[in-house]
Description:
Blueprint: H1 9-40, H2 42-47, H3 66-128
Transmembrane segments: 32-50, 84-103, 109-128
Keywords: Membrane, Transmembrane, Transmembrane helix
Amino acid sequence: xxxxxxxxxxxxxxxxxxxxxxxxxxxxxxxxxxxxxxxxxxxxxxxxxxxxxxxxxxxxxxxxxxxxxxxxxxxxxxxxxxxxxxxxxxxxxxxxxxxxxxxxxxxxxxxxxxxxxxxxxxxxxxxxx
Length: 129
């Protein structure tokens, strides 16, 4: 912001306190929200919810062997079940972190905007109560 020497410092502070900094804090808050979405990759976890865990899968036998076939079927199914539960845990953790980021950002933004009111109220209560 380009400042003019004739501009009142109180106006400059009010402009910074109630316009420039809240816009900056909102952009930081938005960056944290986008970071948490990318860090937990919730969209990719939902797309691959039923995929095998870490792509562990076994090939079915070429010859007809019922024991090997059911062994492979059970192993692949178990790998998908593990993948499902691990992805559900990560999705829940990501959603909880997202809720925390949204709540913390709102509290910080609101606290910063209301900080001057709190300071004036504190001075009032110190001297007049």
